[in-house]
Amino acid sequence: MTVSPKSAASAAGKEGGGIEIIAHPLVQHKLSWLRDRTLPRADFRKVVRELSLLLAYEATRDLPLRPQELVMPDGTHLQVEQLEGRSLCVIPILRAGLGLLEGMLDLVPSACVGHVGVQRDHDTLEARVYYFNVPAHLAERRCVVLDPMLATGHSALAVLDRLKKAGAQKIVFVCLVAAPEGVHALREAHPDVRIITSALDEGLDRRGYIVPGLGDAGDRLFGT
Ligand SMILES: O=P(O)(O)OC[C@H]1O[C@H](OP(=O)(O)OP(=O)(O)O)[C@H](O)[C@@H]1O
Ligand SMILES: O=c1cc[nH]c(=O)[nH]1
Ligand SMILES: [Mg+2]
Asked: Where is the Phosphoribosyltransferase domain (predicted)?
């Protein structure tokens, strides 16, 4: 059976209901490789990392700048713009979110990293937070939450709830593939959170996996 993800051409680049689908040809090309079940693990990891760098660029496009004066090599003073405020906080959702971390740090090396461990119950599809460790001063930081897959949205919701309780105010959620069900759940509960993705797929199967999706992203990244 052939399934055409509506993400690739038709939905790419459109912003609907607060979701930003990145239409950049490099993003769409790399995502297409991840759909191929024969892609070896090392390549899967590498492409996920490359995609995260491209999506990081989008996630940071509205970071605030402040004027700063510096001295040029010839001694003249120049007014420039530099990032304002505390460094950004990147929060991968364990495990699969770890696959997106390095690309994000390639672009923003000074970022702090918080870790949130979430396990989705295979039967109920409910999410359980088993680890939560985030930097101080979250209220003053842009928080970028990473998870390749937004399926039912239960895992993302659990993380966003905990982050907001810990003080986070400005949050961006970055994923590779989103299902409409997960997007809807996030928009309802957290309309202030930007969702950035490379694809909005058709829906979920009976096991809560995204169709067409990528399969189990964590298993493909880590070989379990
Ligand atoms: O939107 P949801 O329905 O909650 O599903 C998405 C979650 O499921 C996967 O994680 P999983 O629980 O399989 O853990 P893993 O990262 O360890 O593979 C994925 O990485 C998301 O975190
Ligand atoms: O499609 C899905 C859904 C949840 N987790 C995954 O890894 N893939
Ligand atoms: Mg998994």
From this structure: 22-224
